[in-house]
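Private note to self, pasted from the team thread so I don't lose it. Backbone tokens:
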């Protein structure tokens, strides 16, 4: 199970004309994506149900940046360690085959994502400050 966040810069020629050097956006954009990814990972850990703490400790993140875009992932690394129940917990699973049993569902990824979205204003302000710093450099 993973959640992905991505940034793609389009219109690089137009941006270069307006800003003079769009390459200066790369570092602030990567910092922004890293902050957003770590924020999401931390919220997923907080919202993960705890019985044995295996699920809570199994979350990780990656950031892969190319010349034109960057993709960050928050993912569950513990499928090899027996934490294979992340998806069934998020979306619901019948614990017994009886049709009268309700589906057990403990969403944690969706609430974590919603909480992270509340933090976007703060992350956007930091991005703006980072861009200003980058363009003040000579």
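Design output:
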């Amino acid at each position: 199970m993973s959640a992905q966040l991505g940034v793609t810069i389009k219109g690089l020629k137009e941006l270069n004309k307006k800003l003079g050097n769009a390459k200066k956006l790369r570092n602030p954009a990567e910092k922004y994506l890293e902050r957003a990814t770590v924020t999401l990972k931390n919220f997923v850990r907080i919202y993960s149900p705890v019985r044995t703490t295996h699920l809570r400790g199994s979350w990780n993140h990656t950031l892969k940046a190319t010349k034109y875009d960057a993709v960050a992932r928050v993912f569950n690394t513990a499928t090899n360690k027996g934490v294979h129940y992340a998806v069934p917990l998020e979306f619901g699973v019948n614990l017994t085959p009886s049709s009268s049993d309700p589906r057990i569902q403990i969403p944690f990824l969706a609430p974590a994502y919603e909480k992270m979205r509340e933090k976007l204003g703060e992350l956007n302000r930091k991005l703006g400050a980072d861009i200003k710093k980058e363009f003040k450099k000579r």
